Amino acid sequence: MLKVGLVGVGGISGAHIPAWDAMEETRLVALCDIRPQRLEPYPDKRCYTDFEEMLEKEELDILDICLPTNLHAAYALRAIERGIHVLCEKPLSLDAGDVERIYKAAEQHDVFFMPAQVIRFWPEYTLLKDFVDSGRFGRLLAGSMTRLGGIPKWSWDNWMTDESRSGLVPFDLHVHDLDFMVYAFGAPKAVQSRRVRRPEQDYIHAVYEFSDFFITAEASWYAAPYPFTAGFRFQFEHAILAYENGRCTLYQDDETVTDLSAEATGDTGAINLPKCDAYAAEIRYFTDCVQNGHAPDLIRPEELRTVIELLKKL
Q: Using H for helix, E for strand and C for coil, what is the string for the chain?
């Protein structure tokens, strides 16, 4: 059984901790956070407020990093140098140079590292990539992606609204959609962007040009309490695939409309999305890679570098 430690018991850890606990192959043995009150709900774990103490006292196979972005690289390297596999929340870093540093260290110490780019495991987005790769509905013509919400006033020490720690909307929010674009379509040929950036809000609109199609994207932290929404709409030659208001729908040029979010009916001709927790899926994937000695190459360092470099320009 693989022994897991997690550092940073903040918001996203609420998705990671149940996923680790649900797997038979892993045991989440230790948690670390500088806030003792964050550890109180987990009496079944060994809890630490000092990261070095946790590394010293625990014999971990995997470390899960759920810290503010500016801390990712340093904490990952400290674990890697002890021979611990590392899963790290997105984005890997605010600095593209950290990609090579971390992957080189992981290779030297014979461990695996993977940033948790969860959209690559999200059912609606994996379906979109399958449609693109298979050409099932013809050539991709255009797409749009959105990820909108209010400014996160709830983060510890307001770290998310501190550019030096989070990178603001480009690195904390838009990174999801841009990472998927680079993963699914490669690096764009050109980018045009506009940004409204003020102390109380941050908004980006970008157009990414590829060889024979383009994708528009929006991402925001509005000052007003705008409800969080994320989705996409992609236009193929013979269909539109839309993920809107939590539903994934296929609109075909023969006037067929299929709700892909509906429960499977047993019709072998239907396309039905699996019920899937994407956070659990990415953790399962990384665990399987560690167990089987197979590098987690679904996420490649060259893609991560490209994403960081593009985000820096927004």
A: CEEEEEECCCCCHHHHHHHHHHCCCEEEEEEECCCHHHHCCCCCCEEECCHHHHHHHCCCCEEEECCCHHHHHHHHHHHHCCCCEEEEECCCCCCCHHHHHHHHHHHHCCCCEEEECHHHHCHHHHHHHHHHHHCCCCCEEEEEEEEECECCCCCHHHHHHCHHHHCHHHHHHHHHHHHHHHHHHCCCCEEEEEEEEECCEEEEEEEEECCCCEEEEEEEEECCCCCCEEEEEEEECCEEEEEECCEEEEEECCCCEEECCCCCCCCCCCCCCCCCCHHHHHHHHHHHHHHHCCCCCCCCHHHHHHHHHHHHCC
Q: Would the pLDDT of 273 be above 80?
A: no
The token duo for 169 is: 């909307």
Per the CB < 8 A criterion, the answer to whether 252 and 234 are in contact is no
- The CA distance from 33 to 314, in Å, is 32
Angle at alpha carbon of residue 313, lines to 311 and 314, rounded to 5° = 70
Beta bridge partners of 192: 207
Q: What pLDDT digit, counting tens, does each position of 59-77 carry?
A: 999 999 999 999 999 999 9
Cα 242 to Cα 231: distance, rounded to the nearest angstrom: 8
Handedness of CA 283, 284, 287, 289 (dihedral sign): negative
Asked if 193 contacts 206 with a C-beta cutoff of 8 angstroms, the reply is yes
CA-CA-CA-CA torsion sign (252, 253, 254, 255): positive
Average pLDDT over residues 31-60: 98
Contact between 58 and 84 under an 8 Å Cβ cutoff? The reply is no
